[in-house]
Amino acid sequence: MSPDKAPSIAAVLASFAASECRKAVRSLADARQQHRGIHEARKAIRRLKSLLVLADEPFADAMPVIKAILGHLAEGLSPLRDAYVALNTARTLAGPRPSPEWRHVLVKLEHRSDGRLAAALHADPRFLKRRRQLRELAVLVEGLPWRTIRQRTIDAALARSERRVAKAHKRATKAATPANVHDWRRKARRLRMQLDLWRRVQKARGKTGHRHVQGTKERAHEMSRLSDALGLKQDLRALRVVLRSFREPDAVAPLLEQIRVELKKHRKKS
Length: 270
Fold this sequence. Notes:
Layout: H1 9-28, H2 34-53, H3 63-94, H4 100-123, H5 128-142, H6 151-174, H7 178-204, H8 211-245, H9 249-269
Helix pairs in contact: 1-2, 1-5, 2-3, 2-7, 3-4, 3-8, 4-9, 6-7, 7-8, 8-9
């Protein structure tokens, strides 16, 4: 692609933002794999927010409203996704031949996950309300001042994200509370999404050969490994909390011990 025919950064970002809105709507409309659809919708919402944050300054007037909408949508879907993650984490720990204790807990976790989904669908059949909110959001996003975005806008935003990851890392190292570790993971994940997005923008513009793009790819992989490792620990701790909430100390004791061993193993790796 010749330089004079390459689309602008603003045009590519606007196109990607519209695409994420459509992906979120389609994912919530997936009646065959509803848990997967919820997961994919939440990912699209996170990617959209990560993209828009790259233009926090030129979008300053509209961002409070848009962030509130995205936050409300993500918050409403989180309990559904969290219950399903707890079930999948337990399945992984239980292995192909679950013990009687794991079989008992897996049934309870399945009922918990399916129950939350059923309650959400009762309150919002087929997620029609959420899908309408996403379509309305897409209109707001389309009307943003995309043409004001420049290369320096992106560079400044990526630098801010890098500083935020560094600060969150420092806080988590000083005090490894669940909140601090979660914040570190969240900021690392956002930076990874932004770096991945920037590589896609450059590819769409025919700029993939630049050395900076290769460095971005390596940094994105680093952030991906970090967020995955932190996410696994978070999932194990969340499952531990759920098991304790069942108030069956004798039944869950060996399972809690298995989780403790797993967490210790991953602490040594990190």
